[in-house]
From TrEMBL:
Organism of provenance: Nocardia mangyaensis
Record GO cellular component, one term: cytoplasm
Principal subcellular localisation of the protein: cytoplasm
Known EC number: 3.6.1.-
GO MF annotations in UniProt: GTP binding; GTPase activity; metal ion binding; rRNA binding
Name this polypeptide is given: Small ribosomal subunit biogenesis GTPase RsgA
Residue ranges of domain CP-type G in the record: 92-246
NCBIfam families xref list: ribosome small subunit-dependent GTPase A
Protein origin, superkingdom: Bacteria
Names of the cofactor(s): Zn(2+)
Amino acid sequence: MVDYDRLVPYGWTEAVANEYLPQLDPDRTPARIVRMDRSECDVATPSGPARATCTRDLTGLCTGDWVGLDSEGTVRQLLPRRSAIVRSSVSGRSVAQVLAANVDTVLICTAADGDVDLGRIERMLALAWESNAQPIVVLTKADAAEDIPLDVVRAIAPGATVLAVSAAAEVGLDVLTALLDGTVALIGPSGAGKSTLANALLGEEVFATNAVRAVDGKGRHTTVHRELRALPGGGTLIDTPGLRGIGLHDAAEGLSKTFSDIESLTADCRFTDCAHESEPGCAVLAAVDNGTLPERRLASYRKLAKENEYQAAKTDKRLAAEREKVWRDITKFQRRHYRARGHR
């Protein structure tokens, strides 16, 4: 008899059971990936923790995935993901890299004791919203910060809760803990205090921590694997390595939610295809002019939208063809222009 109760600390619920058990192949046992290690992984099973082998035909497995194991302890089946945090590969190719799967809450961690990078927070919000999880922006190291820009960050995070916490001083952790739901993933740059916060939420020193370099204020990678742990109050937590590059990958919906203030303004633009550049009757530009929309926010919106479109064009042949046609037209125009001026 399968003891599913052993999976409960790792996120197994009645809803998960109802969704996945009918989809399991015969003679397969459900398990959740706790940590990936190339062709092998640590998994939580109804029989307890185990080491499993991954077959070559199942690629892209990641921490948080629910899978089906055979009797030999080999992963034979990937069950459908309910959510996934996905970024564009750091290789520069438009390849999706899944950071964590089946996540319900994303903690976007930024150190409050330094320069709070609003653009980076907006970028991580787009990833979080696109994942189908609920983002929470956490300004860490609040005890070491002279001024915590809570209102500024709240203004760029519509729909998301913004909190200031200090794991070291145990400030704000009770409020944060009350907001956690299901599987929680921590994302952010190195030095943001993710592992320290993870340890505080887990109630024990599970993940290694390092001090931030004083010379440049940057952190060092202390977490090198994505690892899932059971939270003492229920639910699970996934700590992730620091993100140096956070490329967008097919994140149109995430951008729309991140910049919902700008999206709502576009409904009042004179032209339905307004690019918010110099068109007459642009409600977005009017909001910048009257000071209700910061120019920095519009610039960030343009930058991320352009990046997302470019990444999508790499994988979408139709969009790629359209972009190529635009550049061909521009080149032809430039050539005609130079010929008209007597240049060869």
